[in-house]
TrEMBL record:
It comes from Vombatus ursinus (Common wombat). This is Olfactory receptor family 10 subfamily G member 6. Residues 41-288 form the G-protein coupled receptors family 1 profile domain. Gene3D superfamilies: Rhodopsin 7-helix transmembrane proteins (1.20.1070.10). It comes from the Eukaryota.
Amino acid sequence: MQSGNQTFVTHFILVGLHHHPKLGVPLFLIFLAIYLLTISGNGLIIFTILVDAQLHRPMYWFLCHLSFLDMTISCAIVPKMLTGFLLNSKVISFGGCVIQLFSFHFLGCTECFLYTLMAYDRFLAICKPQHYVTIMTRSVCNCLALGTWLGGSLHSIFQTCFMFHLPFCGPNEVDYFFCDIPAMLRLVCADTVINELVTFVDIGFLALTCFVLILTSYGYIVAAILRIRSADGRRNAFSTCAAHLTVVIVYYVPCTFIYLRPGSQEPLDGVVAVFYTVITPLLNPIIYTLCNKEMKSALWRLGGHREVQPH
């Protein structure tokens, strides 16, 4: 579409991951396997929590939300990557790009808030056990979970509107594998200093703040665990907390690396982005089943066994 001497972009071309043409099929198979494992692994966690009455507690209710978020983030990013690898289909419409960017930031920000909420839940359960049941009631849990989704949607609406009110009238090749703010800013035919600053403050600072709150919660949690006299009690407490802290680090470190440097054009950025958009959703169910004793026991029961055999 043209107006005078100015051309407005109606579609974008996702350059994707830089690779040799002969690697298209192998990469397709690898990412397809990751995608299927992500969907099935997180789906298994949701199903296990829903059918096992022993897991009907706030911690696992929040874990259901996390698994659903991991599934939907993967669905928002990976299918387009797969078509690029196999069919070399790299074109995405302007509207499709808007939807993808909105979806990713909506789900990603909701997950960011959810990690913080899960840390608060563990803080109450371990540091304030006498008040935990009265504080974390079903209605409170529902309101808190709804708040994470609402916060994520408001954040994403702001970021998406602030991004796409800018003019795109020049090149349309997105040097990335999905529509994201740092890559899209490089295509804007206007000054993007304000947008880069807003991205740094709104996304980078938000992620960093949540991360600091989580680490603070775990500082209190570790101190409380060390005061537990029972060795089994300490082991169980570390078991439930280790999984959550591990997935938090796996998610926040690469995310902070990208969004605290919105103007960066380093090739490493794409690799880091693959990690937190594709690999992390796969790792979460693995980490939770390996590190969490209650989840392992529930999966054991789901398979028809009575209890996990001690090592």
